[in-house]
Amino acid sequence: MGFLLAKSYAVVAALLCVLLPCHAKLSTKFYAKTCPNVEAIVRAVMAPAVAAEPRMGASIIRLFFHDCFVNGCDASILLDDTPTFTGEKNAGANANSVRGYEVIDDIKTRVEAACKATVSCADIVALAARDAVNLLRGPTWKVPLGRKDSRAASQSAANVNLPGPGSSAASLVAAFGAKGLSAREMTALSGAHTVGRARCLFFRGRIYGEPNINATFAAARQRTCPQAGGDGNLAPFDDQTPDTFDNAYYANLLAQRGLMHSDQELFNGGSQDALVRKYSGNAKIFAGDFTKAMVKMGGLLPAAGTPTEVRLNCRMLN
User: In CA terms, which of 12, 29, 48, 223 is 20 to 30 Å from 148?
Assistant: First the structure.
């Protein structure tokens, strides 16, 4: 009788999480009993994926950011469009840009095999982002877990909330501030651009039309990013150590070698200049600030009342 009551309670609790907010406090030990090997499983998929293509590490970090900045870290970005459902994958900042979905699918398949209907896709993305940084020779940190997956998505919110490559310093501070993140945290998180690539479409205006750019750097970028055509041609954010997570991004800004307008805005006679100089000269301070900011951003949760669940397939609702 007691077993039946406990089982019935668990079913009711699960249903309530679909209908009502279930914002349990995140904990680094959330799966200690229910899925103790989850972090090892995530790492076992991420390590070969990043080794085969270092850019994938940067893509997973970006996936996490684009998820968290739209109604919280709820894996809404992973939902596919259907004839009756419009997700976030085709929002302006995501379409033909955000990648890594297949890596998350692979992790989810393996996690489900080990711990059925237990670990959320949102937690998988958070763990994968941490491992991506570390596998690119960056810092590591303990990831608080216990997120749930949203049963909703908002393409319109994605179009509004995600800062674009032409953002000014003031608009970046405002966008991050709207999420409860300080200007310092914004500048630290921007350091993720020490790895990864950007499409010509997003930096063409800077390399052909902005005065605060190193001439040699601009000429090098122009060789693969013509004034017309080649929108999808890629260039590294950091052409010094493009696949190493370090503080070279900030040294590049000091030398006016920021790839996108929004990058160079962090060092352009404004409020973040001193911090950029500090990060450029002290990799330890940058790493510490970055990890703290990642944990804080990872704590952004869906609004109260958002229907949630633990998805069995990250691309679709249960």
Answer: 48
